[in-house]
Amino acid sequence: MRGKKWLLTVVCALLLVGVVCVLSNWLIDPFGVFEASPLQWDSYAQTLNPRGSKVRYISERPGEYDSFVVGSSSAASYLPETLERYYGGSFYNMFHYGADTDYDRELVRYLLEQGEVKRIVLVLGLSDAYALHSKTEGLTAVPDYRVSGENEAAYKLRFLFASPSFAMEKLSSLRKDTEMPQTFDVFLPESGTYDKRLRDVESIGSLQDYLTLHGEDYLSETADTTLPDIERCAGNVAAIREMCSEAGTELTVILTPFCREQIEQYDNAALNAFYQALSDVTDYWNFSITPLTYDERFFYDVTHTRNAAANLVLARIAGDESVGLPDAFGAYCRQGESTDAAQLKKAAGESAYLQNGSATVPILLYHHLDPDQPESETTLHPETFERQMHLLKEQGYTIVFISHKLNEIMEITDRLTIMRGGRSMGVYNTCDVTKEEISRLMVGRDVILNVQKDKAQPTDVVLRVRDVEYVNEWHKKMLDKISFDVRRGEILGIAGVEGNGQKELVDMLFGFLTPNAGSVTVQEENILGLPQQKLRSKGISLVPEDRMLYGIAASASIEENLISDRSAEKRLNHGPLFNMKAIHEEADRLIEDYTVLCKSRKQQVGMLSGGNIQKVVVAREFSNDPVLILADQPTRGIDVGATEFIRKKLVELSRSGIAVLLVSADLNEVMELSDSLIVMQGGHIAAYFEDTKALTDDQMGEYMLGLKQQSADQIRRVCHD
């Protein structure tokens, strides 16, 4: 009897473990196969089977995409936005790690069966000539049942009884804010690619680091190249070509760039056999051996190109003359034509694009340029900087100067290339173009930096500051009996050489610092000592000086940043749960209203340009029904288009009855935007101007540098008592 009880206990325990295993696999869904899972994530970056999750993603969005990139991980750098620019349509990158042409063939068949497909871009790497990964065992390489033709129930059953360790791995990945066990940067589910901009700033020595770690494994893998593998690869390409022809789908076959370490593992005969096998079945673009082959800057590792290399490939195919390409870069191989590897190597080696030897390049690092401060160890006057640039030029150096500041561009450069949206808008002699023309080319329209505004009609006082004092940790008085009012319907500007108390004033107003003396009220309520959340509830918005440190959570999505200050509002919640539909609508509205250039609301905000990050910040701060906006350097370090937009918004909001306190080191900005103006010097108010229209730079400079000081009665007018 005791034995039976023991056996029953064991059986029950095993059944319980099985039930827990099944439930955890369904609930957590580590392989992204259970569409009904309550914990389903859109991004396959958080699943362990990317083959299945991409197919699921597009199957849920029929008709949204009409063109596809197909291939292994060597196809990951071929960006949909670049392809759309050249070919039109709506592209999705279906690359899969470890995929081979066996899988590519079945995937293309599936895609063509789903509806009209305009174009297939098939990207082949050298690995496709020797590696057939369909033989790979394990759940991470199982094709989706829609592609393989497997019974859906049988397909899902194997994942239902997978080891619970996979579910734990996914949870651990989420907890650590990583993606797959192989960590890549931000996955963009709407395009099928990874955002590699973080990888693109890696050291060019990363390739050598990779070879040091994995070279032995790589060499042993490539040693198994055989002609049957090549023939099988070519047979799959032929099948893909035939299917596309029958469906009326354009097919572009690209043999992507190989790096030197790959090429050196094969003799010319093996490479020629691969070329011939492809030429026997299709036209294709051959970029296998080019000047890029010998330039490790274009590779992350031995098999993966940087996005820059793929962009050059697509520019060559499209005949984009605005993109500078190396000599002997790529060739269009018609069916039946032969290609010789030795000739490709010779042409690539002779290209002027390839820099043999070394060159001495001076790298100049400047901490800070400031026209209003005397030169010091940390500050350099722009005139000195300009002289140094011209001195280097006279010594025979070619200088590449990158800036969005038009004054610097006009003063320093001889020629300029204007960029917009990742594309060159042309090369010009600086003397032949005006600031207005440059701005228009940068933004795509006329830019008006001289702000047009109606005369302010200020009403009641919103912010009242009286006799505020602040002494910093080094016992220096940074604020010395500061008193002023900011009224509804006006922009009160604060000008001054940086370091004269402006930063401390803003930090004090938003609760980052506590003054040693004085009072601050908003709408007659004391705000000193209140936490930031409470200040926001009283209608105070802050555009901080440092947007990366205080303005955003860089690793969070655009949507999360936009609703971070209002997530508790009833309209965005269903009881204890978020109203995701309302949140999505809110984020999409703000993205559209503030013209944030992004792929989607789910994109990581830190991946945006500086101007678009700032638009996310101001979209959140300007749209939460503020009564007072603290705008601290709102256009610092951003492009002219974003600058124009933000300046117009500040004026628009002030004229709607909102009080605006503007702090800016940009003298033109603070003088043009402000209706009235405070000048700070040495921690106190040196001057107050009720109207900025008649102000000149010289007048401002005298007060900013402490050469002049208004009387107490003149300054007291800023209090409007």
Chain-wise SSE layout:
Layout: H1 2-28, H2 50-59, E1 67-71, H3 80-87, E2 91-93, H4 101-113, E3 119-124, H5 145-148, H6 152-160, H7 164-175, E4 186-188, E5 193-195, H8 206-222, H9 227-247, E6 250-255, H10 260-263, H11 268-279, E7 284-286, H12 307-318, E8 331-333, H13 341-350, H14 382-394, H15 406-412, E9 415-420, E10 423-429, H16 435-443, E11 461-471, E12 477-487, E13 491-495, H17 502-509, E14 517-522, E15 525-526, H18 532-537, E16 540-543, H19 547-551, H20 558-563, E17 573-574, E18 577-578, H21 580-593, H22 610-622, E19 628-632, H23 640-655, E20 659-663, H24 667-673, E21 676-681, E22 684-689, H25 697-704, H26 712-716
Parallel strand pairs: 1-2, 1-3, 3-6, 6-7, 13-20, 13-21, 16-19, 19-20
Antiparallel strand pairs: 4-5, 7-8, 9-10, 11-12, 11-14, 14-15, 17-18, 21-22
Helix pairs in contact: 1-7, 3-12, 4-9, 9-11, 22-23
List keywords for this structure.
26 helices; alpha/beta; 3 domains; 6-stranded mixed sheet; 721 residues; Rossmann fold; 38% helix
Task: Write a brief caption for the model.
This protein is of the alpha/beta class.
Could you characterize what this model shows?
- The chain contains 26 helices and 22 strands.
- 38% of the residues lie in helices and 15% in strands.
- It is globular and about 90 Å long.
- The protein has three domains: 332 residues, SGNH hydrolase (Rossmann fold, 3-Layer(aba) Sandwich), CATH 3.40.50.1110; 183 residues, P-loop containing nucleotide triphosphate hydrolases (Rossmann fold), CATH 3.40.50; 75 residues, no CATH class.
